[in-house]
Structure formats: C-alpha cells, structure tokens
Write a structure and sequence with these properties.
globular; two-stranded antiparallel sheet
Length: 406
C-alpha cells in the first residue's frame, strides 16, 4: 500500500472527484491511511531527528490552534482544507521509510517518465484536448480555472501535466532530478530508465513555466552537478560523465530542433521576469497587507503574530508572507526552519547532498508562491527527504552486517 501511495502521489496526485466543492482525491485518502495505519511508526519517524520533531510539534500545535480560531470566526471550508494540508502533509514521509530505497527509486523513475511524457503530449496537442477527467485532473473541476496562462493562440505558459499546476510540476521535477542523481540502479533496464527520467525531468522543469522553481534550480545547478560527480567512485566518473554528456547532447539537439520550447522557456524566465518589477503583483500584495497590519490595534496584532489572520481581515499575498498572514510568526518559523533543518540533515550525508539542494530549491519556491497549500507538494518533500535518510540507514545496516559476518 505504501508503494501504491507513493506512485499515486508522484504520478497521479489529482486523480479523484470534487465532492461538496472540495477535491476528494485518491492521494488525500491514501495519505490519511498511511499516516493513521500505524500511528506509533509515524511518531517514531519524527522523533529520530530531535530538531525536526521540535519544529513539526510547534507547527502542529500552533497550526491547530490557528485553525480552531479561524473556524470559530467563520473560515470557509476551502481555506480550512488548505491549512490541514500544510499541517498534516509532513507526516506522509512515513510511507517512504516502509519500503526499500530501491523500490522507491523505481517508482520515481516511472513517475518522472509518466508525468513528463504526458506533459510533452499536453505541450504539442493542447492541455484541454488531452485531459482526462477523474484521472489527470479532478472530476468536477475545470481545466479552464487552472493557472496555466492560456494565450490567444491556444498555447499555455505553464504545462501542468497531471499536477494541475505548473508550480507543482516544477517542484516534483526538481525533487525527482536531485534524487535520481544519487540513485544507483542495479540493472541495465533501470539504468536506462533513470537516464531517460532525468532527461525528461529537465524538459519538464522548462515546460512547467514556474519561475519560482526554475530560478533557484538554475542558480544551484552547478552545485548540484558538482555534488553528483563527487559522490561517484573514481573508476565510474569517466563512464558516467560520458554517458550523461551524450544524453545531454541529444537533449540539446532535440530542444534546438523544437525551438519553441527554448523560446518559451527564455521568454517566461527572462523577458517576463525583467518586464515585471512587481513579481506578478506580489510586492503590491505584500505592501498592502503589511500596511493593513500597521493599522491594527494591540489585540489584533497579537492575534496575527501568534495565530495568523482573522478570516474577515483583508490581508494576503504569496510565499512566506502569506504563510505568516495565515498561521502567524511561530508556525512560520517552525515550517521554514523545519525545511532548512531537513536540508542540513541531508547535506551532512554525502550521498544525500543533491537531494538537499533539491529541497533547498523547493524552500525557495515556498518563499515566493503558495504552492505549500496544494497537495502533493509538501508530501513530496517529506517523501524524498525520508527516502534519502532511509537509504542511508539501509547502507549502514549492510555495512554493519558485513563487519559482523567477518
């Protein structure tokens, strides 16, 4: 069941139907199952890392208090569901600790291929023409309502694949690529699949149109590649680099042949970014919201600092400020501090350093957009982090068993 959950979460996260105005997806149902299946295992997973347990415990306590206060004041069901996603999603990592790292890696290879092949189909054939209600997007919702940046000629600035959102697609690809760079496959079949998945993941990041993940991914790309090379045994570096270089060369030739992909990527990442100093209206939203806070009385300011905004207060925005407006400063520090702690834990292990960089890219995305509200983004961070740390424990056990047998 854990393997099925990971596959659904990474490949088909929006499969399901809308019920009473809220999405009821297979991913959400399975999330509740894997967390509640063995509650003691879930708690023990958090306790393995004291800093993470403190951060999540703080987020849980203050997050639940924020929800209770907001519900008492008339918060709508959709906003409440977003808060529940933020508070509950980190526990999904337990699923990755109950299967082998080899199995997890194979699932991610399949998911990267499925998601990005479908993304390419959407790019060439059109998002609306290739969508399947109840499978690639939630039955009862409309593709037209998704933030895809539909142009007059019918093309879209953001390819959404099975994630219904370009930001979410970009986040999954960044995490998937960083994990694939540290994943050793035992058979030729899965090695070929790994290289294919990596190539598609890079294309998927470009097609996602999500500048919040594209910019940090490009900024950290050199560090990512250096750490990938460092972790390789010296005898394998030459062969791996030659194979990777060949695949990259074919990929570049393909992209140059499909010049529209490159043009769209550059237009979205460079031209539109430089032409819009407000960052798609974010700076205006933030300045307005902080101005509203400056006119609050002492009780309202204390409420905002500790538990977030009242449902009737007109403040909001994107990224870290939005998280603060919704949950307050304590939960904000716990959430973002917990992410940085995960990055630090992964960085301490050489075999997990590329994953640390992938999660750091997602941290940057969470600072500038609202992708943390939408499943499966936080769930994916938890799954990849748990899988990386679980792989290190498996390696330690193998080394210990070898030394004992000797």
């Amino acid at each position: 069941m854990d393997a099925l959950y990971i596959f659904i979460t990474t490949a088909l996260p929006k499969a399901g139907a809308q019920v009473a105005g809220l999405p009821l997806t297979l991913n959400l149902l399975l999330t509740a199952y894997v967390i509640l299946r063995h509650p003691n295992q879930t708690l023990l997973m958090m306790q393995r890392f004291r800093g993470l347990a403190v951060a999540y415990g703080t987020l849980f306590v203050f997050g639940v208090l924020s929800m209770l206060m907001a519900v008492a004041q008339g918060m709508d069901a959709f906003r409440l569901s977003q808060m529940i996603v933020v508070v509950g999603s980190p526990l999904a990592g337990i699923a990755a600790t109950r299967i082998t790292s080899k199995r997890f890696s194979q699932i991610i290879i399949c998911s990267l291929i499925i998601v990005n092949v479908y993304g390419l189909i959407q790019y060439f054939a059109g998002i609306e023409n290739t969508s399947v209600a109840g499978l690639t997007y939630t039955l009862g919702q409309s593709i037209d309502d998704k933030p895809i940046g539909l142009k007059a000629d019918g093309t879209a600035e953001k390819i959404i694949s099975t994630y219904q959102n370009g930001n979410s697609l970009g986040i999954f690809n960044a995490l998937g690529i960083s994990f694939m760079l540290t994943s050793a496959q035992s058979s030729r079949f899965w090695k070929i699949g790994q290289y294919f998945a990596l190539s598609l993941g890079l294309i998927g990041i470009m097609l996602s149109g999500s500048r919040s993940i594209q910019i940090p991914f490009l900024l950290f790309l050199i560090i990512l590649l250096v750490q990938f090379i460092k972790q390789l045994p010296p005898r394998k570096r030459g062969m791996t680099l030659s194979i990777s270089g060949t695949i990259l060369a074919f990929g570049i030739v393909y992209l140059l042949a499909q010049r529209t992909i490159i043009n769209q990527f550059i237009d979205r990442l460079v031209k539109q970014t430089l032409a819009d100093p407000t960052a798609s209206g974010r700076t205006n939203q933030w300045s307005h919201s902080f101005e509203v806070i400056s006119h609050m009385d002492g009780g309202q300011v204390l409420r905002q600092l500790l538990f977030g905004r009242s449902p009737h207060t007109d403040i909001g925005g994107e990224g870290l400020p939005e998280f603060f407006f919704m949950f307050g400063i304590v939960s904000t520090a716990a959430f973002y501090g917990g992410l940085l702690y995960i990055v630090w834990c992964c960085w301490q292990r050489r075999s997990s350093r590329t994953i640390a960089i992938g999660i750091l890219c997602v941290f940057c995305a969470f600072c500038v957009d609202q992708s943390f509200y939408y499943p499966p983004n936080i769930m994916n961070v938890a799954l990849f982090a748990a899988a990386a740390l679980n792989r290190d424990r498996e390696t330690s056990r193998r080394c210990l068993s070898i030394s004992v047998s000797k």
